[in-house]
């Protein structure tokens, strides 16, 4: 996962660079929690540009970070979500609580 923090805007960008499944979700969850705790951002953006697969473990990662950030008074956005991931997020209800942008076709 690549991390970029803009202090001026209190914006934390977390670019996920791997598939999100049972095996990788714990590593992503720990890293995201550490970065959120470290910077205490007002806005967190998960960038899904490089994610080609996600199972239910990914839903847990996103929902858990949403709750954490909301408790801290911040917001969570999902960026560059593929159409396949969008369907998963819609079925889970995440798109109702997190602004989501779709990945543009090349």
Describe the structure.
The chain is of the alpha/beta class and 106 residues long. The chain has a single domain, classed as Transcription Regulator spoIIAA, CATH 3.30.750. 45% of the residues lie in helices and 24% in strands. The protein is built from four helices and five strands. It has a five-stranded mixed β-sheet with strand order 1-2-3-4-5. Strand 1 and strand 2 form a beta hairpin. The protein is globular. The two termini are 23 Å apart. The model has no long low-confidence stretch (mean pLDDT 95).
List the defining traits of the structure above.
single chain, 106 residues, alpha/beta, Transcription Regulator spoIIAA, 5-stranded mixed sheet, 4 helices, 45% helix, globular
Helix content: 40-55%
How far from one another are the termini?
Answer: 23 Å
Note the main sheet.
5 strands, mixed
Proportion of residues in extended strands: 15-25%
